[in-house]
Design goal:
The radius of gyration is 18 Å and the shape is elongated. The chain is built from three helices and no strands. By secondary structure, the protein is mainly α.
C-alpha cells in the first residue's frame, strides 16, 4: 500500500488547529462577556452560550479532521460535511444574540 503524501496529513492537522483556535477564541470571548457583564443575567447567559458554542465548534473540527484523515489515507477526497455551515450559523447566531442583548440593555436605560 502506498503511503499518503505527508503534506496532506500536515495540512489536515493545520485545519484542525484552526477549528480549535476558533472554538477557543469563542470560549475566551464568552468567558470575558460572562465575567465583565456587570452582573446582568442576559450578559452572563450570552457568555455561557458562547462558551458552549466554542466547545461545539472544536468537536466539529475534530470530527472533520478524523473524516479527512480517513479519506486521505484511503486516497480519496473527503466528503463535504455540514460542519462549516454549522459553524457559520453558530457565529451568526451569537452575533444576533449579542446585538439583541445590547439593544435590550439600551431600551432599559
Amino acid at each position: 500500500m502506498i503511503d499518503p503524501d505527508v503534506r496532506f496529513l500536515l495540512a489536515n492537522e493545520r485545519t484542525l488547529l484552526a477549528w480549535v483556535r476558533t472554538g477557543l477564541t469563542l470560549q475566551a470571548g464568552g468567558f470575558a462577556l460572562a465575567h465583565f457583564s456587570g452582573g446582568s443575567a442576559s450578559g452572563k447567559l450570552s457568555g455561557v452560550i458562547a462558551i458552549l458554542c466554542g466547545g461545539v465548534i472544536a468537536v466539529i473540527g475534530y470530527n472533520r479532521f478524523k473524516a479527512a484523515d480517513k479519506a486521505i489515507r484511503s486516497h480519496r477526497l473527503p466528503t463535504n460535511g455540514k460542519g462549516p455551515a454549522l459553524e457559520v450559523i453558530i457565529v451568526v447566531g451569537i452575533a444576533f444574540l449579542l446585538a439583541a442583548v445590547q439593544v435590550f440593555s439600551l431600551i432599559k436605560k
